[in-house]
Every structure is written in C-alpha cells, then in structure tokens.
Amino acid sequence: MLGRLIINADLVVKTGLHIGGGSSSVEIGGIDNSVIKNHKGEPYIPGSSLKGKLRSLTELAHNKIGKNEKGENLPCNCGECFICKIYGVSASEENKSTDRLPTRIIVRDAFLKDSIAETMRRKEKDFKDLELSYTESKWENSIDRLTSKANPRLFERVPEGAIFDLEIIYTIYKEEDIENIKNLIEGFQFLEDDYLGGNGTRGYGKVKFENIRFFTKTIKDYTSKQFGDTKASVDEIDDIWIGKLKEQMIDTK
Ligand SMILES: [Zn+2]
Predict the structure, then answer these.
(1) Which parts of the sequence belong to the CRISPR type III-associated protein domain (predicted)?
(2) Strand runs (DSSP E) across the chain, as ranges?
(3) Ligand 1 centroid, distance to 71 Cα (angstroms)
(4) How many angstroms separate the alpha carbon of residue 123 from the centre of ligand 1?
C-alpha cells in the first residue's frame, strides 16, 4: 500500500432531496414518505446511497451495467475494470479476482454541516419558511394506471441550501489507483448532472460538490497533509494534478 487520499467536500443541495427513511421512522404531520434521519432527528446521506449512485452512474457512462436472469440491472462484478477496483466486488468474487485487493473506497455517512443545522433549527435566512425542524414537505400526485384515480402523497424533503459534510477515503495500493482518481472524480460530475435520492424525474435531488479538499497520508509518514490548493470544483482534477499526486505518493515511499 502506498497511502490514502482523503477527500472532504461540501455536498450542497440544489433542489429538494428525498432519501427515504423506511417504514420504521416516525411519521410527522401526515407525511407519507419521510427522509432518513440520524438519532438526533437530523437528515443525513447514508454513505452507501452516495457510493451506490456514484457507481451506477459511472457504470452507465462506461457501458458496464450487468443484468441478472430477470433483466434487472446489476453492478459490474468482473474484478478487473476500474469500476470494480474503485468500488469493489462482492465477497465471493473478491477471492477469484486477479487483483485480490480490497475495495479502495470508503464513503462515510454525510451529516449536515453544524452551522447549517443550527440555521435550520432557528429557521433563519433561507430556512425561515421551513415547516419541520430540518425539512419541508411537498405534495406529489401520481395517477393510478388502472383506475386513473389521482393519488396525492406528501413527501418530506431536505430543502435547497442544505449542506452536508462529505468524507471519502480512498486507499492507494499502486500507481494505477492514482490514475483511477480521475474516474472517481468523473463520478462526481455525473452526479451533478443527475440526481441523488428519489423523485429525480420530478426535479428532486440536484446536488453540487463544492469546496473540495484533498489530504494525503503516505504509508511512510502516516500523518495527514493537505494536497495541492483547495479545489473549488471537480473540473480542476487534470493530468497535471494527478502527476503531482503521483510524485508525492510514490517518491516518499
Ligand atoms: Zn468490473
């Protein structure tokens, strides 16, 4: 192993975000579909949701979507391509793969930025019309295809302007893993042009990665060092940037 790259970013909600909380969550104010929340009752983005979305968008873009017998989409499980190397393969395939290295990426659960959570609680600035503590509700109408009857449902959403603290840890075993960072960042771009969570076709879930910061930890000197300048956006990760990272990760070994 050469080291680790730690990526921190602000994930900014641009249009109401709905990541479902499941049936066990407490329903408030007649909401049919609540969002997932932590023990403090604050909405968050499960790392698994974000990782899954980044992976599936990357697979879609690179024509790597697998199918099961029923024709449903499955993640690629070849163990050879860059997508399997970044995002991992199932445990049974891991042993068969020639790569035989564990999944490179860990996506942490992303929680609301403290200052934003505070502003939401106080219902200040952009959040003065917020109906619930951290969320808003929106009616969506769907038409029953058999009876043509309208079926209005109330969705809970994280409002525009919410910001989540994102942390991704990417382990670098060999030089090729440094090259693959471009593909990881490309996934961020795909997501910005797509949506996170549910109801994307109704305009929900537009997000943006802002204020991206990179930290490296090389195995020889396992302390965190800021790498490069603070990046404002995903388009600044180019070959020059990758070259500099290689120098830092490999020369110190
Ligand atoms: Zn693969």
Answers:
(1) 11-208
(2) 3-13, 44-45, 66-67, 73-74, 105-107, 110-112, 136-143, 150-157, 163-172, 207-218, 225-226
(3) 18
(4) 46
Query: Total structural domains in the chain?
Result: 1
Q: 203's torsion region: left (phi>0), alpha (psi -120 to 50) or beta?
A: left
Distance between Cα 73 and ligand 1 center (Å) = 14
Tokens of 213: 């910061």
- Distance from the alpha carbon of residue 63 to the mean position of ligand 1, in angstroms: 11
Cα Dmax for the chain: 68
Amino acid residing at 11: L
Q: Among 1, 51, 2, which residue's Cα sits nearest to residue 250?
A: 2
Which residue range(s) make up the domain with 69? 3-251
pLDDT band of 99, cuts 50, 70, 90: low
Token digits of residue 148: 């043509």
Q: Where do the H-state alpha helices sit in 6-123?
A: 47-61, 82-87, 91-96, 114-122
pLDDT reported for residue 238: 86
* Mean pLDDT across 191-200: 95
Q: In the 8-state DSSP scheme, what is residue 36? A: P
Gap from CA of 170 to ligand 1 centroid (Å) = 18
